[in-house]
Write a structure and sequence with these properties.
Blueprint (H helix, E strand, L loop, with lengths): L4 E5 L3 H12 L4 E5 L5 H11 L1 H4 L5 E4 L10 E4 L15 H18 L4 E4 L4 H12 L6 E3 L2 H16 L6 E2 L2 E3 L5 E3 L5 E2 L2 E2 H4 L2 H12 L1 H9 L6 H15 L5 E9 L5 E12 L2 E5 L6 H25 L1
Parallel strand pairs: 1-2, 1-4, 2-3, 4-5, 5-6
Antiparallel strand pairs: 7-10, 8-9, 10-11, 12-13, 13-14
Helix pairs in contact: 1-10, 4-5, 5-11, 6-8
The structure holds adenosine-5-diphosphoribose.
Length: 312
């Protein structure tokens, strides 16, 4: 059986880390593509040099030409600038929308049947923009944000409770940014809600650090933003899509009335498979949780309006 074909646009930190994980987990053949001459080719060659010691089956090639991405099952878009210290994801909006616009036309023309996974920040706005530009059905254009926020939340829950990380289920919904909505009530350790395990102040501190997680990494690195956890989350979502697993993961998807929200891409639990988003899962939220999610959607709407204004 041939491996599925996954194109990663942007052979930078996130793109290359996602590629390494897809290869070492034997998930897919990878095509790395970048505007920078030699960047994708160099990373691909370096990864292939690791093949005989890591013993992975799939292959990776690097290119600057979309013809080589033709017929991909999944296209991951990581092309764009990462955040610099002190910079919010919103500051990236103008420059990264130009990059996403230049990528989507060529990538969709080469792989009209692919599922598109957007990673470029500001994530929710870029996913919405990519979907509109692609003219594809909404279930085939999604974004990676909520899974990253949830895995950061899970890490902090494991640290605070002393539990094995494998025993933690953590859920963050909403915008990928300061307006994200961690849901402690539905985050559990061996089935026990976090809200029953730790005092309110400790839960609040874990939530605060979850929201600040990306910025904490940016501040430490001083150049660039997080890439190991983002790369792992990309590979996990791509794995669910190409294996048609139907696994439920927090994914940035178009909401069309779910949770009382419409016309906005934001992270909610969704079942992933060959067709992309198989089903948007609507959880039973408390009124304050629903309100927080609606506030989060309002902030994304403001960013969408900022993008419209920048494009006008
Ligand atoms: N087409 C293809 N590749 C491009 C384009 C383009 N039009 N424009 C830029 N790139 C490439 C750059 O040459 C670079 O190799 O995108 C890559 C981005 O890599 P990094 O600068 O290392 O950024 P990274 O940390 O991978 O983050 C990428 O993901 O998490 C988000 O906020 C982050 O938006 C950023 C994106």
């Amino acid at each position: 059986m041939p491996y599925p074909k996954v194109t990663i646009v942007g052979a930078g930190q996130v793109g290359a880390t996602a590629a390494l994980t897809l290869l070492t987990r034997d998930i897919a053949d990878v095509v790395l593509i970048d505007v920078a001459e030699g960047m994708a080719q160099g990373k691909a060659l370096d990864l292939m040099h690791a093949r005989s010691v890591l013993r992975f089956g799939p292959t990776v090639t690097g290119t600057n030409d979309y013809a080589q991405t033709a017929g991909s099952d999944v296209v991951v878009v990581t092309a764009g600038l990462p955040r610099k210290p002190g910079m919010t994801r919103d500051h990236l909006i103008t420059v990264n929308s130009g990059i996403v616009a230049s990528v989507i036309g060529a990538a969709v023309a080469a792989s009209p049947d692919a599922v598109f996974l957007c990673v470029t920040n500001p994530l929710d706005v870029m996913t919405n923009f990519a979907w509109r530009l692609s003219q594809l059905p909404a279930d085939r254009v999604l974004g990676m944000g909520g899974l990253l926020d949830s895995t950061r939340f899970a890490y902090l829950i494991a640290e605070a409770t002393g539990a094995a990380v494998a025993d933690v289920e953590a859920l963050v919904m909403g915008a990928h940014g300061d307006a994200m909505v961690p849901i402690p009530r539905l985050s559990t350790v061996r089935g026990r809600p976090l809200t029953e395990m730790l005092p309110e102040a400790e839960v609040a501190e874990i939530v605060r650090r979850t929201v600040a997680g990306g910025a904490e990494v940016v501040a430490l690195l001083k150049t660039g933003s997080a890439f190991y956890a983002p790369g792992a989350c990309v590979a996990s979502m791509v794995g669910a899509i190409v294996s048609d697993s139907g696994a439920t993961m927090p994914s940035c998807v178009l909401l069309e009335g779910e949770y009382g929200i419409s016309g906005v891409h934001m992270s909610v639990p969704a079942r992933l498979g060959r067709g992309g988003v198989l089903k948007v899962v609507e959880l039973d939220l408390t009124p304050p949780e629903r309100d927080a999610l609606r506030d989060s959607a309002s902030q994304i709407r403001e960013q969408l309006a900022a993008l419209e204004a920048a494009l006008a």
